[in-house]
Amino acid sequence: MSVTAARMFEFRLEATQGLARAGTLTLPHGTVATPAFMPVGTHGVVRGLSPTDVARTGAQIILGNTYHLHLRPGEGVIRAMGGLHRFTTWRKPMLTDSGGFQVFSLEGLRRIDEDGVEFQSHVDGTYRKLTPERAMEIQWTLGADIAMAFDHVVPGQAPYELACEGMERTLRWLDRCQARHGALAAGSAGEQAIGEAWEQSPAGSSDGPIVRQTLWPIVQGGTHDDLRRRSLEGTLARGPWTGIAIGGLSVGEPKPVMHRILETLAPELPRETPRYLMGVGFPSDLLEGIARGVDLFDCVAATRNGRHGTAWLPTGRINVRGAALKGSTEPLDPECDCETCTSYPRGYLRHLFVVEDMLGLRLVSLHNIRFLVRLGEQARTHILAGTFDGWSREWLRRYHARGA
Amino acid sequence: MSVTAARMFEFRLEATQGLARAGTLTLPHGTVATPAFMPVGTHGVVRGLSPTDVARTGAQIILGNTYHLHLRPGEGVIRAMGGLHRFTTWRKPMLTDSGGFQVFSLEGLRRIDEDGVEFQSHVDGTYRKLTPERAMEIQWTLGADIAMAFDHVVPGQAPYELACEGMERTLRWLDRCQARHGALAAGSAGEQAIGEAWEQSPAGSSDGPIVRQTLWPIVQGGTHDDLRRRSLEGTLARGPWTGIAIGGLSVGEPKPVMHRILETLAPELPRETPRYLMGVGFPSDLLEGIARGVDLFDCVAATRNGRHGTAWLPTGRINVRGAALKGSTEPLDPECDCETCTSYPRGYLRHLFVVEDMLGLRLVSLHNIRFLVRLGEQARTHILAGTFDGWSREWLRRYHARGA
User: Fold this and answer.
1) What is the ipTM score, two decimals?
2) Could you tell me if B198 lies within 8 Å of chain A, comparing CB atoms?
3) Which of A30, A297, B148, B172 is the most buried (most CB within 10 A)?
4) What is the pTM (predicted TM-score) of this model?
């Protein structure tokens, strides 16, 4: 990695409390104060929300799905329009997943071998193939700040043999991802990089090649502690990395199992490297993850719940369609500072769901995203102040109290 | 009408050019510079748009549908929440229709007699009745700035006998509307009015009862000039009015017929009273109406077209799904100043429709509303400058050129 690349993708650890960490991740399109929740922009859009809406939630980085963007509109179209940032008009940092999770989820429509995954598009039925190299090429063309390695994902409760096979293949594929991504980065030296920052980064004017995208590996190994440890060892042996992801969790295994694996990995993970827990989570998962050393999260639950009228509150979740909200002039969450909670009465939000106006889906999605973003902000404040443990315990007690 | 009411609902005619007029309508919740397009907020929401979105289009007044709001959430719920303005958080002027148009459209689900219209709710199948008195009570309870009279609407191409019957009944019902609305207004003297302005109007602190809502009559008579004239005469005989609506047009009759009726009515309409052409229209209808003396318009076409991906441009309409937009980095309408046109490339808008994300519907609806609102603003500027005729002719020529 060049000097410039290292400076472009810096992570500065600012405070810790127990395993919990507060830091700042610098990327070509801006910085991310951690811990942080990253909304999911499946098709280059966070479902139903404008980039301006998303920015107003305080989100610092969003995720784009390589599988979906490859199918529609295709990475070539996005490249021709100036890359993913210009295409979506989202000016802050972005991360793309590798498409691995999506193609492995296409049960019955995919064929896996050592080379990669052949799959049938859910859009037009055409046969396509993703390999570690293709996943790197597509992501490079899309031009997000962070590209994810192409991993072999196994089902949540996979037995040892299967989890081991997936974990070992993920390491072999990581070699291929690293080689291809390195070649793409080297080949781009001196040329106008795709995904160029909207506002020229200071690093861009200095010595060395300008590397606009970094690659993060993914630790696999299912629910088996020793496989997870071996996966991490193998990953670190191929480093250094500017960030490390933990994949294959929150896919059906019991919560205590996820927590145990995070605790197993935490002491082995490099202190100065940001840790990204993929596909997590719900509000309590965020706090449990932060308490176990996670810096970055993504999940579709905020928008999916929002579309179904489920809003998160500090006292647990609420169904916005519920008769109890009829005629209520109270805000959805009196403690929240989002557009929805500061502008609209509960009775109006309920009415929007009753008459099936899409404004309702948008307003509850907005609140849920702000809820998770703010939870990251609050956790960060408490970690910096050294009060995270007590605050987090009290927060979780209140959140779960109604169900108890 | 009390002195206070007259001042609360003042219309000041500022300039004319031929039949075209520019004026300012003062209402309890603000002023409306005319000519003006009024977006339709069917269920107390302009489909898919937040009140903030709508305000940013420059819209000065929106319409709420009494029929829909009566069914859901019910005017009692809205009253308990502080009236339609507080319910929707739209702080500017509002107008409610009477529900007449909707219940007369419920073919097969309604029974009409001199008393009113019995109809079956499209939501839950319950039988309900709207009469002139009920329409006034519901609208008073909703609390918009302007209430519309309950009229007998006949089909667009209704024969003379039927159109005459509807027109005469509309006049008889106007007497009943006027009596009931007057009683409601008188009864409210001294009490906190529903729909109270968010910011206390200066008129509220002066002598006389505070009247927060005015009633506008509707001229009917189908496509028959003499019936239209008789309707207007009968209406004026029951005045004075703070505004007069022309209903039953743009319901299937040829455009020249609508233009002829507007021309027939224009010289008979009081100069100092605003004229509202109901349910109109498309961009060219706005200019044709303004040229014939209309001050205010409403129509769902802007949002309905927006949801179907049809955008209005100065050169005619365009299908946002069209393959020609794929990969385009151009704005939708380079001459437009709306959020959609100043923020997003065409290729991204097309992508949103292809992946069926509701953000696309919203962004094109926003543009279409801004397009009509801006057309009103431009017409006004040209009327004030005395250049309306030439500008309007050239605008229409360019708009229709492609189809010619």
Assistant:
1) 0.93
2) no
3) B148
4) 0.94
